[in-house]
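Work Package 4 report. The design task specified in the project plan requires that, given a folded chain encoded as structure tokens, an amino acid be chosen for each position. We show below one input record used in the internal validation round.
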């Protein structure tokens, strides 16, 4: 019986929690514990040498519970880029600014969301660098994010009529973010777990990459 079912059977709803219900808090904790176990095992042994059963055991959950949270071992190891914030999307779509200026503002806001988990950024980079077999899964995550951005750009273009190729704009945006994140990772010590990153550091890297791109295109 699940905790939620047990709660209903006892006649009590889930206990409220400042960040949501107690059930939500437990789900977030379980998700975090499974991902942490997967990453620790993969960093220690290599991705190919780790099984889903071993990850589940290390996290203290069943194999079935593992698949309630993640589609695969690779899914547990790699964290997809966060979705664009809805309010930021609406500002971009409706901003009375040149396309490039509005897109740069959207990128800066997204950079602040990405850097909220500096340990996760560093660990993901270490995993992909040391385990090339993860590259395909990571590319698919980036492709999903790019498709979502294309849809957002198309919404703006439908309103403004700007002569912009949405696929090209989304691809360039992805390259800017990738280079900015890689530069940021290079400045974070792999032994600095638990440190708090200043979100503005990645924003600064985004601006530097944008400046570099403009310089290249101007030549």
């Amino acid at each position: 019986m699940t905790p939620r079912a047990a709660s209903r059977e006892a006649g009590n709803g889930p206990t409220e929690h400042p960040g949501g219900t107690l059930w939500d808090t437990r789900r977030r904790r379980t998700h975090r514990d499974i991902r942490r176990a997967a990453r620790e095992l993969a960093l220690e042994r290599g991705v190919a040498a780790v099984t889903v059963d071993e990850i589940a055991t290390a996290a203290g959950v069943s194999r079935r519970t593992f698949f309630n949270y993640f589609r695969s071992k690779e899914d547990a190891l790699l964290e997809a880029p966060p979705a664009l914030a809805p309010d930021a999307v609406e500002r971009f779509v409706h901003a009375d600014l040149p396309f490039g200026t509005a897109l740069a503002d959207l990128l800066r806001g997204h950079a602040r969301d990405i850097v909220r988990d500096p340990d996760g950024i560093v660990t993901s980079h270490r995993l992909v660098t040391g385990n090339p077999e993860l590259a395909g899964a990571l590319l698919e995550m980036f492709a999903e994010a790019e498709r979502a951005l294309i849809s957002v750009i198309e919404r703006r273009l439908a309103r403004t009529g700007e002569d912009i190729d949405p696929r090209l704009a989304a691809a360039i945006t992805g390259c800017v973010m990738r280079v900015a994140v890689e530069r940021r990772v290079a400045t974070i010590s792999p032994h600095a777990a638990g440190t708090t990153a200043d979100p503005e550091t990645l924003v600064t890297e985004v601006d530097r990459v944008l400046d570099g791109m403009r310089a290249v295109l101007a030549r």
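Residues 135-160 form the longest helix (26 residues). Validation will be extended to a larger panel in the next phase.
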